[in-house]
Amino acid sequence: MSPSADASSGPPSGLRVSVDLNLCQAYAQCCYAAPRHFRIEGHEALFYDPAPAAQDRDDIERARVACPVQAIRVEDPERGA
Amino acid sequence: MAQPPGRALIVGAGLAALRGAESLRAAGFSGPLTIVGDEPHPPYDRPPLSKHVLTGAVAADATTLPGRHGLAADWQLGTAAVSLDRQARTVHLADGRALPYDRLLIATGTRARPWPNPHEGRLSGVFTLRGRDDAAALRCALAAGPRHVLVIGAGFIGCEVASLCRQLGLPVTLVEPGPTPLSRVLGSTVGGLIGAIHAGHGVAVRCGSEVEWLEAEGGRLVRAHLVDGGSIATDIAVIALGAVRNTDWLEGSGLSADCGGVDCDARGYVLDTDGQPDPHIAAAGDVARFPHPHYGGRRVALEHWSHAVAQGIHAGRLLAGAGPEVPYGALPTFWSTQGDLVVKSAGLTEGADAVAITQGDPAAGRFVALYGREGRCIAAVSVDSARWLPAHAELVAARAPFPPRGAATDRPKAVTILEPGLP
């Protein structure tokens, strides 16, 4: 894999996501809600995209709400949240 | 009762600083707020730096944290604080400016402990991993397909980097002076179990071993020489020797501070060298050393993500003057993702005199270890068993008797009490 193949950071106006992985217990509800931005690796290691594109905000919001332990935080500058 | 808001200043622009700023505002502080950071970047999340940034799944500059919008803060990034004058209530910056404050939050965090030989530490191919730029540089080097990676130090960062190299298909050696990986924090009993999992994934684990010097050809790392006389050919070395707290700028301030942190009282106010609190200054995050009420007031400085959040929030409320001044005492918790393996912990293992596997089976690679001291539960560590951790954390929070009573269906029939093997 070359460095140029790496993930892009997305536009600066996009969403910002962080997950409290202390709280996360790999219920994987976010992975069903937004499969392109959340996935479980191994038994319980959560991968998440910290900078999703703004047009994916509905998926991200579904993931945030679906989390049984409310571990997902989302900032959406365009919606002032 | 209503005091003028005055000026708030936060030195440091990481997680504790950002959550502290949010908390200050949420608690009603409406005055001017300035945030100073030595790096040019807005606050970013560090955990991905030693994981998905290194695999290339996440770009280093995608780690910017949520929470900056709506803060109404003046961000002074790319310039470090160099001194603190508490009489004049002023912080001096490297660019010569002086910023006044009425409420100051110290959240300058830590930096990677450098390789002891500065010349060798600057060789091409030698890396430390603390900041966003460090992660971007190491990602580039790993993506270029090195023949071999050497990780020096098998603490959490070292184990994360080594296991991730295996995920990238790179040959990797993990060198550690202790008896097992993670032995300083988890003890050699649990550290040995986790080390065996990494070895099973192809990490060459060399414990009881130490790198003496790094050999270069044309300014590029080619080989690491061990104290015992052996050597390891390698084109990359990741120095993972822990962190040093950023307190140098407090020298001469009259505050009680050293490379182990700046001392705080139970509420979070910093202490001067006479042990008196300064009610204008609080500290939070990695840099704050404070008496932990759950552990008999032992002074600790915790490098945990959740601690930076919780203590940042606590300090923001404190500096806002909101509500009663209560001691800070969140139960320490952390996680570490090592390859696909998730290690989580609640409580502090230091001083444990016993450990027991209370859930799962180490042979299956999934278990919970409970640590005891003088007949009480003091910490719990889960390995790929996160859903069992909250119940164990409750035992720790309650200082429940150790070994624990009760019989979960999948608890080993006879709980064996082991030596934790802590240093």
Output the helix-strand order of chain A: EHEEHE
Mean pLDDT of chain A: 86
**Corresponding CATH superfamily of the largest domain in chain B:** FAD/NAD(P)-binding domain
Largest sheet of chain B: 6 strands, mixed
Strand content of chain A: 15-25%
What number of structural domains do the residues of chain B give?
3
- The CATH architecture designation of the largest domain in chain B is 3-Layer(bba) Sandwich
Q: Tell me the name of the CATH class of chain A.
A: Alpha Beta
Q: The CATH topology of chain A is what? A: Alpha-Beta Plaits
Question: Counting H and I runs of at least 4 residues, what is the number of helices of chain A?
Answer: 2
Unreliable runs of chain B: none
Q: How many angstroms does the end-to-end distance of chain B come to?
A: 51 Å
CATH architecture of chain A: 2-Layer Sandwich
Anisotropy-based shape of chain A: globular
CATH class of the largest domain in chain B: Alpha Beta
InterPro entries (chain B): FAD-oxidoreductase/Apoptosis, FAD/NAD-bd_sf, FAD/NAD-binding_dom, FAD/NAD-linked_Rdtase_dimer_sf, Reductase_C
Cofactor (chain B): FAD
Protein name (chain B): NADPH-dependent 2,4-dienoyl-CoA reductase/sulfur reductase-like enzyme
Keywords (chain B): FAD, Flavoprotein, Oxidoreductase
Structural notes for this entry:
The complex is a heterodimer of chains A (81) and B (423). Helices cover 19% and strands 20% of the residues of chain A. Chain A is α+β, with helices and mostly antiparallel strands and 81 residues long. In chain A, β2 and β3 form a beta hairpin. Chain A has a single domain, classed as Alpha-Beta Plaits, CATH 3.30.70. Chain B has 423 residues and is α/β, with parallel strands linked by helices. Chain B is built from 8 helices and 29 strands. In chain B, α1 runs parallel beside α7. The longest helix of chain B is centred in the middle third of the chain and has 18 residues. At the A-B interface, β1 and β4 of A face α4, α7, β24 and β25 of B. Chain A: Pfam families: Fer4_13 (PF13370). Chain A: This is Ferredoxin.
